[in-house]
TrEMBL record:
Keyword presence, Signal: no
Reaction catalysis annotation: oxaloacetate + acetyl-CoA + H2O = citrate + CoA + H(+)
Protein name according to UniProt: Citrate synthase
InterPro entries, per database record: Citrate_synth-like_lrg_a-sub, Citrate_synth-like_sm_a-sub, Citrate_synthase, Citrate_synthase_AS, Citrate_synthase_bac-typ, Citrate_synthase_sf, Citrate_synthase_typ-I
Pathway entry: Carbohydrate metabolism; tricarboxylic acid cycle; isocitrate from oxaloacetate: step 1/2
Regions crossing the membrane: none
Keywords assigned by UniProt, alphabetized: Acyltransferase, Transferase, Tricarboxylic acid cycle
Entry's Gene Ontology molecular function annotations: citrate synthase activity
Top-level taxon in the UniProt lineage: Bacteria
Family: Belongs to the citrate synthase family.
Length: 392
C-alpha cells in the first residue's frame, strides 16, 4: 500500500494550505484574514465579515454598500419553492429542510454549474442572500405560519428576524439589542478553518461538484452533536439536569465515569486547549440578552455553575477541556425566541461565508487534487467464493 500514515480523525494531517483563518489553540487566538475575532465582534457586521472572509480584505464603504445591495436584491426564493416547504411534515427539524433547500436552490440556479468566475460570484451572493430565507421559511413552515417575503428596506439581520418571527398582519418591532447580538453571534461563527463541515465542503467540491451540492453536504456535517448540533445538545443537557434534580457535581461525576456514555456538551475542542475565544465573547452577551427573558436566567446560572465545576476539576484540567462556542450560544438564541431546533440552523447561517470562502479557495488552487484519503485494510485476506448451497 505504499507509504500510508494512519491518522484517525485527521488529527495530525493538514489537508490544505489556507489563507483564510488562523487559530492558535493553545493561546486561544482566532483571526479571520489576520483580524482578531474580538475586534470583528466589536466593530464589524456579519455581511462585512463575510466579505472579508471571502475576498480577503475589508471592503471600502462603497464596496460594502454595493455588496449589501446586491445581496439584499437576491433574498427572494422562486415562488415555486413555497410548495417545497409544504412537502415537509409539520415540526420537521429545520436542518434537513435547510440541506434539502440548498439542493432545491441548485435546481433553480444554473450560474455556478459551469464554474465561470461570474457564475461563482453570483452563486456566492445568492447563497448568502437566500440561506436566511430558506432557514426562516423552514421555521415558519414547521409552525404552520405564513412565510413572509423579505423586505428590502431592512438590514440582513433584521430581514431574517422579521421573516422568522413576524406576521403579515402586523408590523414587526425590532429590539436593537437582539439584532446586534445576533449579528455578533453570526460574526463569531463565520469561519473556523478545516473543521468537519468545511472539510466536507472542500472534499465534495474537490470532485468538481458545484457549490450548492458542496455546501448542502456542509450543512449535513454540521448537524451532528459533536459539531454544530452541540448547541442544541447543550440546552437539552441543561434542561435534563434541571428536570432530574441531579446536582451539578453528580452530573460532572457521571461524565467523568464515562459509564453512561455522556459527555459534557459544549466542552472540549480538537484545536482549542484553552478557553475558546468565541465562547468568551458570547458569555459577555449572554447576560445582556438574558435580561430580556428573565425566566431562563436559571439555565444561565446552571451553565455557569457547570462551567465552574468542570474548570476546577482535574479531569477537565488534565485534558485541557474548556467551554467551546456552543456552550452559551443556545441560551442566547433561546432568549431571542428561537426554539432549540433552530440553533444549529443559526450556526449554518453564520458558517456560510466560511464554507463559501473555503470552496472558492480550493477551486482557485491550481495545484488542487481530488480529496481521497487512504486506509489501513484490516479485513479478510483473499478467499474463494463459496456457492450458496455449500455455505453452513
Ligand atoms: N466531556 C467529557 N470528556 C471529554 C469531552 C467532553 N465534552 N471532550 C473530550 N473529552 C475527553 C475524551 O473522552 C478524551 O478522554 P480520554 O483521554 O480519557 O479518552 C479526551 O477528553 C480527549 O478527547 P477526544 O475525544 O480525543 O478529543 P477530540 O479532539 O477527538 O474531540 C470534540 C473534540 C469537540 C468532538 C469533543 O471534545 C466533544 O465531543 N465535545 C462535546 C461536543 C461539543 O461540544 N462539540 C462542539 C465542538 S466546538 C464547535 C463545533 O464544532 O460545533
Amino acid at each position: 500500500t505504499g507509504n500510508v500514515t494512519y491518522d484517525p480523525g485527521f488529527a495530525n494531517t493538514a489537508s490544505t494550505k489556507s489563507a483564510i483563518t488562523f487559530i492558535d489553540g493553545d493561546a486561544g487566538i482566532l483571526r479571520f484574514r489576520g483580524y482578531p475575532i474580538e475586534q470583528l465582534a466589536k466593530q464589524s457586521t456579519f455581511l462585512e465579515t463575510a466579505y472579508l472572509v471571502i475576498y480577503g480584505e475589508l471592503p471600502s464603504a462603497q464596496q460594502l454598500s454595493e455588496w449589501e445591495d446586491r445581496i439584499r436584491r437576491k433574498t427572494m426564493l422562486d415562488e415555486r419553492m413555497r410548495e417545497f416547504f409544504r412537502m415537509f411534515p409539520r415540526r420537521s427539524h429545520p436542518m434537513p429542510v435547510l440541506a434539502s433547500g440548498l439542493m432545491m436552490l441548485s435546481t433553480f440556479s444554473f450560474d455556478s454549474l459551469n464554474d465561470t468566475p461570474e457564475g461563482i460570484e453570483k452563486a456566492t451572493e445568492r447563497l448568502l442572500a437566500k440561506v436566511p430565507t430558506l432557514a426562516a421559511y423552514g421555521y415558519k413552515n414547521s409552525r404552520g405560519e405564513a412565510m413572509l417575503y423579505p423586505d428590502n428596506s431592512l438590514s440582513y439581520i433584521e430581514n431574517f428576524l422579521r421573516m422568522s418571527f413576524g406576521y403579515p398582519t402586523e408590523p414587526y418591532e425590532f429590539n436593537d439589542e437582539i439584532t446586534r447580538a445576533l449579528d455578533v453571534l453570526l460574526i463569531l461563527h463565520a469561519d473556523h478553518e478545516q473543521n468537519c463541515s468545511s472539510s466536507t465542503v472542500r472534499l465534495i467540491g474537490s470532485s468538481g461538484a458545484n457549490i450548492y451540492a458542496s455546501i448542502a453536504g456542509g450543512v449535513n456535517a454540521l448537524s451532528g452533536p459533536l459539531h454544530g448540533g452541540a448547541n442544541q445538545a447543550v440546552l437539552e443537557m441543561l434542561e435534563a439536569i434541571r428536570a432530574s434534580g441531579i446536582s451539578v457535581k453528580d452530573y460532572v461525576q457521571q461524565v467523568k465515569d464515562k459509564k453512561a456514555g455522556i459527555k459534557l456538551m459544549g466542552f472540549g475542542h480538537r484545536i482549542y486547549k484553552n478557553y475558546d475565544p468565541r465562547a468568551a465573547i458570547i458569555k459577555q452577551h449572554a447576560d445582556a440578552v438574558l435580561r430580556l427573558k428573565e425566566g431562563r436566567r436559571d439555565l444561565l446560572n446552571l451553565a455557569t455553575e457547570l462551567e465552574q465545576t468542570a474548570l476546577e476539576d482535574p479531569y477537565f484540567q488534565e485534558r485541557k477541556l474548556y467551554p467551546n462556542v456552543d456552550f452559551y450560544s443556545g441560551l442566547i438564541y433561546e432568549a431571542m425566541g428561537f426554539p432549540k431546533e433552530m440553533f444549529t440552523v443559526l450556526f449554518a447561517i453564520g458558517r456560510l461565508p466560511g464554507w463559501i470562502a473555503q470552496w472558492r479557495e480550493m477551486r482557485a488552487d491550481p495545484g488542487r487534487k481530488i480529496g481521497r484519503p487512504r486506509q489501513v485494510y484490516v479485513g479478510e485476506p483473499e478467499r474463494a467464493y463459496v456457492p450458496i448451497e455449500d455455505r453452513t
